[in-house]
Amino acid sequence: MTYNQVLGAIEKILREKLNHQHMDAFAPQARLNEDLYLDSVLILEIMLALELDYGVELPEEVISRQDLDTVDDLARLFVEASDSARELARPAKELVFTRAEKEAAERVGVHGEDYVDIKVHCFVSSVCHAVKQKQLDHRPFFFGVWDAGFAVDRRWRLAYHAAEINHDFFRDWFERLYGPKVRQWYRPEATKEENLATMLELLERKKESEYLMVMLDLFHLPERENKFNQNPFPHYLMLENTDDPAVWMILDPDFRWEGKIEKQKVINAIMQPTVAGGFIFDAADIRTPSAVDLRDYFLACFHEDDNLLTRATREIVRAHVEGRDGVKLGELSSALRELPVISIRKYGLEHGFAFFWRSLQLSNTEFDIICDDIEALIQEFKTLHYAIMKLSQTGNDAFAARVFEKLGELDAMERDLKRRLAQTYRMWCDTRGLLHAPRHDLEEAVA
């Protein structure tokens, strides 16, 4: 297909097949996310439609490309697919623990404060914002993120937000590690109006050092980014009063955004039936965590021999292939619609490595290799998702083999990363005189 043919096909797919409602800005230079509100799943839908309906197939290694910003980028990807193959993920190599005291002293790379921060969990990002403001290292709190909880319902659907998911694990460990008690002000048994009244009262009288968190439906706050095109989009952020009683200051650490929004618009997003939750904590109580507590938290979070997300995904695929509980193969795409929202939590592995790397003053070179491998893992989840969508939309059981093969590859990649993280963790324990596993009867607290 020529460039213009591909461009026309993309427009037709969006208008007719996907019934996309944001086509006014469609043009070659239109931005996929910001102008057309296309998330990663919808982009995969376009790719799959071009393959199945137009016979234009992309090499698997091209599907997960990261440099797609505009419609033009997407169109050229198909026109130039034969020349666009990227380097495949390298086989993981053994870690080389190279000391780099000079890099650490000069605060270069991972040792500096310009190191790219990871934002992949709204609750964790919110409480970690307060830790960062105290000039303390928030990275170890992300130990709990890469395998953070999700739900699989009775219809074998994956969800990052569900009634049975709460943040008690993170709340308890935040208090143990950093000090502040994260108090839940939102009462599930109360009405929406009663909880709103509680929040307004807390907001009016809270101390300057306190942070008030509230869950709202980001879909109903169009002023804010909704990069995953989620509806609903449950999300925690923090509120402050301003000099204008009709305007609130919004602090959204997870999306790195701070700004003023009309109070009534925010209240509308809070009052949606799709969301319920709120906490408050005092940053004045924040302290440096002890090494023993950090060790125990790591072990409480770490599943070296189990990849929870790939295991759950494998069971969901099997359920749909086998028709368990009446589910159909054609429902598999929607059942795993939220896979991208959950799989990006694997970026939290970077913070795990970064914490140990900074503490041990290790070389940036090896850290950069690890980051590349984490990136490769996350991008392989995208090719998995594409294979799942292809299986679901075609109903062809023959494509199931590739899905299970891809799940096996992802398992191997993540296990290798966790193996290397475990190596680094044990080295960190050794430098602090800590046992690798808790034996508090034999240890004294280590600051």
TrEMBL record:
Domain Carrier as annotated: residue spans: 4-82
Pfam families, per database record: DUF6005
Cross-referenced Gene3D superfamilies: ACP-like
UniProt-listed SUPFAM superfamilies: ACP-like
Name of the protein this chain belongs to: Phosphopantetheine-binding protein
Organism: Allomesorhizobium camelthorni
Taxonomic placement: Bacteria, Pseudomonadati, Pseudomonadota, Alphaproteobacteria, Hyphomicrobiales
